Amino acid sequence: MDQSAGSGAASPTLHRPMATPPPFWASQPPGYRNLSLSCRLTYLSVSTSELIKKSLLISLYPLGAACRHRLWMWGEQTLTLSGVPTATSPVYFFPCRVFLMAVLVGLIVWLALDTSKRPEQLISFAGLCALVLFLFACSKHHGAVSWRAVFWGLGLEFVLGIFIIRTDPGFAAFQWLGDQIQIFLSYTTAGSSFVFGETLITQAFAFQALPIVVFFSCVMSILYYLGFMQWIILKISWVLQVTMGTTATETLSVAGNIFVGQTEAPLLVLPYLADMTLSEVHAVMTGGFSTIAGSVMGAYMSFGIDPSSLIAASVMAAPCALAMAKLVYPEVEESKFKSEEGVKLTRGEEQNILEAASNGAAASVGLVANIAANLIAFLAVLKFINAALSWFGSLVNIPDLSFQIICSYILMPVAFLMGADWADAPLVAELLGIKIFLNEFVAYEQLSKYKKNRLAGLEEWSGSHKQWISVRAEVITTFALCGFANLSSIGIMLGGLTSMIPQRKSEFASIVLRALLTGACVSMLNACVAGILYVPRGEVADCPGFLNTVNFNTTSYDIYRCCRQLFAHLASLSNCCGHYNNTVCAMKP
């Protein structure tokens, strides 16, 4: 029996089922028969009847073995999940090659037909290509790039995006999930109102949003104690490792970043961190910068940010982060962790579920204090910077000069390439600048103000000031802000990793800036994918009928949007003109 490529351990022997296999399989060479071992193990673990197991084993032999072997042969090295040999005739994976090519051609044709209906999607596609080329230009070792990891990572991101954004079942499922999470997090008020009182939790941000972090941290600790989170993370990392060909440790850490923060995810691979290669450590850092923690996600939801977009952005960022990490810092060393064998996720040391809940709540105190302190400091610094810039600007007849305006001019091309309309690009660029140079908490808080203005039906422009951005721009911005890639996170990342492995401090410091840049670009790539796949949903189709029946004593975004269109019914047009003091009508041709 051949040995696994990464661990050197002999592959486990699996006895054939009692039923005699067809003569065809008996006539095949031993190397080909070994290809089905992993497929057998997978289906034997399914909790179904023995009859179904045996039927699946026999019927899925050809395609399962061929596709499995194709995955192994695609990368530079052999994955070591089942000890499959690398040298086999191409005829064995021909069906899988045909299938993959058909999927690729189908995706290209679908994108071509889809973008022909909405040309603005081409801008987002151009932005995606530009960002990938930029990251390739920044690559540490151009000749060592694993294009398998890059294309599979982007492919998985697209597949997830298509399911979540474009398909009705996927969109409905994530909308439902987001609604349920919001309902679940609303139970936080039971504890916070008792401690702080009803008045404070409705009027003060610190008592409204930050207690959600405590509650969510408590729940996550319970799920870790029960082993549920470890199970989910292992399943996600297995999919990423099998398809992308990455090592076990870096994949586990990036998968964990979907649920935990940039300092908690490395704890999943703490026993192995000292022996990980620089490329693997770079992937760990990039995963931390590219995603947000589940605990702060609850706080962003309390701002009014769309829950389904936040969840989708965090999930889609994982394969993209791993792909771009391997593009920017490819593997040139020999990793000790090519295989899952020996890499385990352990449960906590809590004795019971109550201790787990208590420890989770207590552990969040530092996080809550850190969030509050950073918000106080950064908002104060931003106010001071704007005051100083305004003073300097007044000397050159630019009294409105501010940090946001500077960011809007510098990052406006990036915002436009992500898919935001040119009119929305300055505001989106402002939010990007706030996220990168301050933090995403402040940026999401500002985005929530724009969203509230839009939902309230305020006019789009107040003089020369734009009061809100379009729904499409909101979705793109939500994806672009979903990550910890900001300057303050450099200290957090270095401090966390150095406290775990002090002897590698200089190595960590040498790659952290590259990882920060990669993480920021991953969030923008995610936004480009959202821009490519986004389609309007839930908008009023019959504006004339809607405006003839709507109550104009209130204001909403639907009223404003319909009032901006050219109506067939003069009565509804007259109502709109009066409601908006003829400013809408004045803009008509």
Automatic annotation (TrEMBL):
The chain crosses the membrane at residues 91-113, 119-137, 149-167, 205-226, 281-303, 310-329, 367-389, 401-420, 475-499, 511-535. One of its GO terms (cellular component) is plasma membrane. It is found in: Cell membrane. Residues 207-304 form the Nucleoside transporter/FeoB GTPase Gate domain. InterPro entries: C_nuclsd_transpt (IPR008276), C_nuclsd_transpt_met_bac (IPR018270), CNT_C_dom (IPR011657), CNT_N_dom (IPR002668), Gate_dom (IPR011642). It is a multi-pass membrane protein. Residues 310-531 form the Concentrative nucleoside transporter C-terminal domain. It holds the Pfam family Gate. The lineage of its organism: Eukaryota, Metazoa, Chordata, Craniata, Vertebrata. This is Sodium/nucleoside cotransporter. It comes from the Eukaryota. Belongs to the concentrative nucleoside transporter (CNT) (TC 2.A.41) family. It comes from Pelusios castaneus (West African mud turtle). Keywords: Cell membrane, Membrane, Transmembrane, Transmembrane helix, Transport. GO terms for molecular function: nucleoside:sodium symporter activity. NCBIfam families: nupC (TIGR00804). Residues 126-198 form the Concentrative nucleoside transporter N-terminal domain.
